[in-house]
Amino acid sequence: MTQKKRIKLPKLIGHRGLKDLCPENTLESFNKAFDIGLKYIELDVKISKDEIPIVLHDDSLERTTNHFGLPTEYNYSELRELDAGAHFYNKKTNIIIPKLIDVLDLCKKRNGGLNIELKPNKGFEIKNVRKIIELTENYKSTEIFFSSFDLASFIEISNELPNSNRSFLIDTFKDYSLEQIINLSSSYNSNICGLSLSLLSQEIINIIKKKDLLITVYSDKNMNLQEVEECFNIGVDSIFIDDPKNLSKYF
Ligand code: G3P
Ligand code: MG
Q1: Alpha-carbon dihedral of residues 239, 116, 22, 50, nearest 10 degrees?
Q2: Which residues contact ligand 1 via a Cβ below 6 A?
Q3: Residue 34, Cα to own-chain centre: how many angstroms?
Q4: Which of 15, 50, 64, 227 has the fewest CB atoms below 10 angstroms from its CB?
Q5: What's the chain's average pLDDT?
Q6: Cα–Cα distance between 236 and 216 in angstroms, integer?
Q7: Closest residue to atom 5 of ligand 1, CA basis
């Protein structure tokens, strides 16, 4: 089956908001991305103990808050008391872990798009997707695409929202070969393929493009102008960016 390109992605997507300029995955970070002029943000979503979709990258709370443990061990009323900005500013802040619905409201208000990365804690894959779908149903005018490294999440969102824009994310070809990834995209009719910068080559891009898939690229550190230009030159459609300094021509 030929894949359909259902959306035109922007060249740059703010990674966890703009994670090099603000505390990642916070409203401050998402506002910063829109203030600077980006049209689209990426965020990582998992559920709390009371099954509220929240915006948090890691499986645990340690790195980005002043507490420890798993988010699935706490209700949101407890999680919202944590300081999600101190790790960035090295001082106490009032910055909190947002709920997904807060970010959906922000994107609606600012007319921005969002990439919801499905990032469940282990054992909460299906519930996470279902709770996220319940929320996004009410934001039909906001452009959204879903992505995940997690196969169960990718399959669940594909089955539940077969017409949505979706991407399977790949960090290494050790877990899945390129052929398996392409077959997965074809089986579930997804339209985007998300790759780590470390996997990129012209040959790989050409193979993916032949399948009519859009290609997004992320990196574990910010990409500079030269790296960004090289990506676009070989056919990458969209890049997750941490700090878009010197990149305003791509806004
Ligand atoms: O979706 C792109 C990127 O967000 C994937 O990596 O670890 O930053 O969620 P990570
Ligand atoms: Mg992410």
Answers
A1: -160
A2: 15, 42, 44, 57, 117, 147, 169, 194, 218, 240
A3: 16
A4: 50
A5: 97
A6: 6
A7: 218
Which structure tokens are listed for 188? 């579930």
Q: Is the pTM of this model over 0.90?
A: yes
Task: Tell me what the mean pLDDT of segment 97-105 comes to.
Answer: 98
Residue to substitute in 12, 15, 18 for testing ligand 1 pocket (most ligand atoms within 8 angstroms of CB): 15
Cα(247)–Cα(21) distance, rounded to whole angstroms? 15
Task: Give the model confidence (pLDDT) of 105-163 as tens digits.
Answer: 999 999 999 999 999 999 999 999 999 999 999 999 999 999 999 999 999 999 999 99
Give me ligand 1 centre to Cα 82, in Å.
Answer: 23
Q: Both tokens of residue 217?
A: 């690229």
- The Å distance, Cα 42 to ligand 2 centre, comes to 6
| 55 within 8 A of 99, measured Cβ to Cβ | yes
